[in-house]
Design brief:
Blueprint: H1 3-34, H2 36-39, H3 44-62, E1 69-73, E2 80-84, H4 86-99, E3 106-114, E4 127-131, E5 135-139, E6 144-151, E7 158-164, E8 173-176, E9 185-188, E10 196-203, E11 214-217, E12 222-225, E13 231-236, E14 242-250, E15 253-262, E16 268-271
Parallel strand pairs: 3-9, 10-16
Antiparallel strand pairs: 1-2, 3-6, 4-5, 4-7, 7-8, 10-13, 11-12, 11-14, 14-15
Transmembrane segments: 12-35, 47-66, 78-98
Keywords: Carboxypeptidase, Hydrolase, Membrane, Protease, Transmembrane, Transmembrane helix
InterPro entries: CarboxyPept-like_regulatory
């Protein structure tokens, strides 16, 4: 085959290869636009690797049709670098790829926190923790708590939230961020049963501790005995501030009969009124 024909075939071959490369890159651009939300969440290392890889492929398609050269003059970083041909394509793809790197979008997640299985009681106070890439906490105000600047890559994803509200159980829950990024997320907490732990001391009319005295509350519903130093404690399933009748027996005789308000904040001192 004459040299001229070989040259023409060679040039035609590279034109076809370049055209195919152009089609492939247009297709890749369309795919990236469709899945731009996922591309935005690539790690910087992966993104840079793919960028260099694409740049090398683009330059490779042009090596048969264009002459490439690279020349450096000077000392170290203060010198001059001259590029030509496909090498310029490689440089431009990497430069503009880094300059125009996609950034992940964000959304705000709104939580509605209820104190029961219905929507009748909004919780106010306490904290809500969301376990994202790093734990994030926010205060609950009037039943609402909002977390801002959450990566859009978490839309439709399930995460763990942990409420910390006085009077309610601290139980973690699995929630799913809404796909639209706007709908509020409902949380229903479980209320703790009312209970108080009351401590106190029984003394006689002379102010001395009374050991082994029987204390009876609420007409026999709750009972306990004082220790050798006259101290006692009750764990009662009632609200703080509940008033109950109290009877104290010593040697099988009633020595105290009155009502008392029970609160864990104030220790009781009960003085016998009879010998």
């Amino acid at each position: 085959m004459p040299k001229q024909d070989q040259k023409n075939v060679s040039s035609l071959t590279w034109v076809i290869i370049t055209a195919l490369g152009f089609v492939l890159f247009v297709a890749a651009a369309v795919v990236l636009m469709i899945f731009s939300d996922k591309a935005a969440n690539l790690s910087p290392q992966v993104y840079f690797f793919l960028l260099v890889f694409v740049g090398l492929i683009a330059a490779g398609f042009l090596f048969g049709a264009l002459k490439a050269h690279a020349k450096y003059s000077g000392k170290f970083y203060g010198g001059t670098l001259s590029l030509g041909g496909p090498a310029v394509i490689l440089f431009l793809i990497i430069y503009f790829g880094l300059k125009l790197a996609p950034t992940a979008g964000s959304f705000d997640a709104k939580f509605m926190v209820f104190g029961d299985t219905t929507k009748n009681e909004l919780v106010s106070g306490g904290l809500l923790k969301v376990l994202l890439n790093k734990p994030d906490s926010a205060r609950i105000e009037n039943g609402v708590v909002t977390f801002t600047d959450i990566s859009s890559g978490l839309l439709g994803k399930t995460v763990t939230v942990i409420p910390s509200v006085p009077g309610y159980y601290k139980i973690s829950q699995q929630v799913t961020f809404p796909a639209d990024g706007h709908s509020p997320i409902e949380l229903h907490l479980k209320k703790q049963a009312d209970s108080v732990t009351v401590r106190g001391k029984v003394i006689d009319i002379k102010g001395q501790p009374v050991p082994n005295a029987l204390i009876v509350l609420a007409n026999g519903l709750y009972k306990t005995n004082t220790d050798q130093l006259g101290f006692f404690s009750f764990n009662l399933p009632v609200k703080d501030g509940t008033e109950l009748p109290v009877n104290i027996y010593r040697d099988n005789k009633l020595r105290y009969n009155n009502t008392q308000i029970f609160s864990p904040k104030v220790p009781l001192t009960l003085q016998l009124t009879r010998l």
